[in-house]
Amino acid sequence: MLPSSKKSVSAGHHSPSVPRTPRAVRSAAGEEVQVTSSHAHSVGAKVVISRAVIDHFTAGSSPLQVLAATAPGVSFGSSDALGMDTAASTFYVRGFNQSQLGGTIDGIPMGGFGFHNWYGLNIDQIEIQDNIQSMSVSQGAGAVDMPSGQTLGGALTFQSSDPKDKAGGKISQSFGSYNGFRTFARVDSGILNETGTKFYASYARTAQNLWKGYGDQRENQANFKLVQPYLNGRGKLTAIFDYSGFTQYNFLTMTKNMWQNYGQVAMLKPDYAKAVRWAANAQAGTVPTEVQGVLSADEASNIFWDGSQVQRNYLSALVNEYKILSNLKSDTVLYGHVSNGDYGGTNNFLTSPTSGIPMVQQMGHPDVRRIGFTQSFTLKLHNNDIQSGVWYQNNSFNYPTRLYEDGVNGAHATLSGFKKGTGTTWWADSFNSNTFQFYLKDVWHIIPGMTLEGGFRSLTQTTHGGTKVDNTAALASTWGTYYAHPVSGSMTSSNAFLPHFAFDYHFLDKHEFYWDIAENMRTYDYATQTNGGTPWGGLGNASNSAQQVFDENKSKLKPERTWNYVVGYRYNSALFSGAVDFYHTDYYNRLAGITSGPVNNTYSAYLNVGRETMNGADVLGTIRPFHGLEITNSFSWNDAQYKSSAIPYNGGTVSIKGKHQVFYPKFMYKANVNYTYHRASFNFNTTYSSAMAMTYMNDVKVPS
């Protein structure tokens, strides 16, 4: 989002969308068919989704979309049919969003998988969905061996398919409305020599027009994986390379009033004259004639010419599995991740100095360099599996923001023309973080079917950075630049003992009982100086510097922590599967960007806003009346309440005690029907979500 001179008092949100789903036609050649369960299954507090389940969905659907449709307590929303637009998607697991969950693919840490990729990468930008062999979501307390600094609640694990032993290939082609199409192709080499060398290379291209407004969205993805066994199968070395390039026009973020009283608002492109006129209104603080009495000045000022993103991602890894002894195994992952791109759009509060047009193309050009490794050892004794390991990561993040003039007769190009030296730098931020984690756990096999797991992890992260360049004052008279919150300094998150305990008991053949308890800590986020919600971002005001607020916070802030408790029961037979579990979370040191200070000098701050407690339950039942037919229903209840009674706000205090958490429904109901006959299948999914609060006071809600 672009910075605005006016702020609305609400939690950030995305507008409701009505995308159309493409119709898929698939064919395959040389494919090895694996016999596997056609439904999601569970182990303890973890739901596992097989390739067979993923194949029930439209080819190319986001794995997060598949998880949300099949796992209770999981919520996913997106602006496009396949769920690929990370700028307009949300993902929650039992109240925790995508920035509060851990994730790995093939053991590679995914980091934070939100929109901008400050310190991670979304699964949709790593792996082509067709290449995912399985995935799981831990709805409970996470896991001590998860290499993540973001985990407060659950954890996601993805496993890509290995190259096939038999040479062959696969082609998939989909077509849909709004000129939607998707092409996927994969070639498997088969086993090439006596040592077992094999690889695959695959490519996917997806494109569709926006379902409202001007523009389209295009994604190109490529995956390569090579597997080399050695020492007669004692070891296996895997080389991985993933690429994705996303070129997208963005949807406009809307308030509830906008979509209720003005309709599905889109950006103003291609009506340039209207965009210039509305920008002039924005700078004057007035409402355009055609929306007077419908939109506020704040709402109208944030409807602009255009917004877009170009993103390029490269992920490489070497994964080595080696059996040192018959009961001792070593797993090593070395990885490197590079992301860069162009993010932004029209800013209605700046002026192009040469043309005098009251708007400017403002673009951020992020550059991410993430490198690291994990090393773990697993020792199997008579009744114990002892595992220990370390994780280290260095992340370098740079974000210069440049201004590009809009002309008298037309705007600057939306998706090109951003080469270094062609724009004017407003400000630039730079961060460097080092993360280290150690863990130790023991899984004790008490009797057949009964295990008790105990372990802990130690986690520390130090981040240095902030404003590197700030030209606000120098550009104020020509471009109309305004306060940009420059700040720099270091923050450290650290906890030496984060315990995890889990119990799982399979009894009487078809029954399972389990519980799970863990403490988690989330390291401090970092983002640009104009993005609120981090210790470095959106602080202070023109008379109370961001640096002063940051320095005061250093001695007061503590990392966010949670204690998570889960207990559940599961029954599984050929005809029926049922599960019920209950969970409780105590959330400490919740951090949030708020407006603080005396009434005559309020400023943006980042503070501890107290505790939150969460109680919930999930109930799931699956019936299989005859071979090939599977009907699943699930119901989820979540009561997440804030406990703060005196949060500083706008020169005073407000109480949000007893208010429900924003953007997570209190109730969800899901129904899934799947019928498979030989190689033909039919699939139906539907989800009901209750109303969700848009504000911390719960006075504005997204309807059910």
From TrEMBL:
InterPro entries: Beta-barrel_TonB (IPR000531), Beta-barrel_TonB_sf (IPR036942), Plug_dom (IPR012910), Plug_dom_sf (IPR037066), TonB-dep_rcpt-like (IPR039426). Residues 45-151 form the TonB-dependent receptor plug domain. Pfam families: Plug (PF07715), TonB_dep_Rec_b-barrel (PF00593). Residues 329-698 form the TonB-dependent receptor-like beta-barrel domain. Its main location: membrane. The keyword Transmembrane applies. Residues 1-37 are annotated as: Disordered. It is a multi-pass membrane protein. Keywords: Cell outer membrane, Ion transport, Iron, Iron transport, Membrane, Receptor, Signal, TonB box, Transmembrane, Transmembrane beta strand, Transport. The keyword Membrane applies. This is TonB-dependent receptor. It comes from Acetobacter cerevisiae.
